[in-house]
Amino acid sequence: MTITFTTEPAERLADAERARVLEAPAFGDVFSDHMISIDWGVERGWYDARITPYAPLVLDPSAQVFHYGQEVFEGLKAYRRPDGSVVTFRPYANAARLNRSCARMAMPPLPEATFVEALELLVTTDRDWVPEQPGHSLYLRPFMIATQRTIGFYGPSDAYRFMVIASPAAAYFKAGARPLTVWLCEDYTRAAPGGTGEAKCGGNYAGTLVAQAQAREMGCDQVVWLDSAEHRQVEEMGTSNMFFVYGDRLVTPELSGSLLSGVTRDSVLALAGELGYTAEEGRISVADWRADAESGRLTEVFSCGTSSMITPVGEVRSKDGGWTIGGGEAGPVTGRLRAELSGIQSGQRPDPFGWVHKIA
Question: Does residue 2 have a pLDDT over 70?
Answer without folding.
Answer: no
